[in-house]
Amino acid sequence: MTKLVMSLTAAAVLATGLMAAEEPAKKKKQTTLKLYLTPAEAHDMKTKDAAKVLFVDVRTPDELYFVGHSDDIDYNIPLKYVDYSKLNKKQKGFASYKNAKLVEEFDAALKEKNLTKDDKIITICRSGDRSAKVANILAKAGYKKVYSVVTGTEGDKDKTTHKRTVNGWKNDKLPWSYKFNKDYFKLILPN
């Protein structure tokens, strides 16, 4: 009976044109809203109805600047910032701190696009962990349709080389740019 219900659900999703990547096995990538997209699904959702979808890269501004970004994003609203003047011995790297204005910046991004908390929002990060965290924070703040791109921009690590070559936006050959676009950062830059 369970297989029948799952098959009927899958058929309904396909018939209605709704997009739904499978729930990730890793708990870090799971969200309370249970809304997931593959990179291709995110690209399709954004290109089919750009005016009604907010697409946000939640990596640090440095990552967008040095690693590149999807051509489809509307903004960069980072989950965290990195403080390169301090080391964090526990994490064996530079110190970081949470973006205290995260929800406020998402609210501003929605307002800028004439959208509401009931409209579709896509979050993306490097591999799907941070985008899931942001989706959960936004869900707690009353957002209803926050999708996390489960494999992010660079995807999962391959088991042999431990390099991010398995999946993800870049590996799926979706539109990608290394060009700096100040408009992505206008919600976080001082006036």
Question: Any chance you could write out the topology, listing elements then pairs?
Answer:
Blueprint: H1 2-16, E1 36-37, H2 39-48, E2 53-57, H3 61-67, E3 69-70, E4 75-76, E5 80-88, E6 93-98, H4 102-112, E7 120-124, H5 129-140, E8 145-149, E9 176-177
Parallel strand pairs: 1-8, 2-4, 2-7, 7-8
Antiparallel strand pairs: 3-9, 5-6
Can you identify the CATH superfamily? Rhodanese-like domain
CATH T-level fold name? Oxidized Rhodanese, domain 1
Assign the CATH class: Alpha Beta
Tally the beta strands.
9
Describe it.
With 191 residues, the protein is α/β, with parallel strands linked by helices. The protein has a single domain, classed as Oxidized Rhodanese, domain 1 (3-Layer(aba) Sandwich), CATH 3.40.250.10. Helices cover 29% and strands 20% of the residues. The protein has helices spanning 2-16, 39-48, 61-67, 102-112, 129-140, and strands at 36-37, 53-57, 69-70, 75-76, 80-88, 93-98, 120-124, 145-149, 176-177. The chain has a 5-stranded parallel beta sheet. A two-stranded antiparallel sheet has the order 3-9. Strands 5-6 form a two-stranded antiparallel ribbon. The radius of gyration is 17 Å and the shape is globular. Residues 1-17 have low confidence and may be disordered.
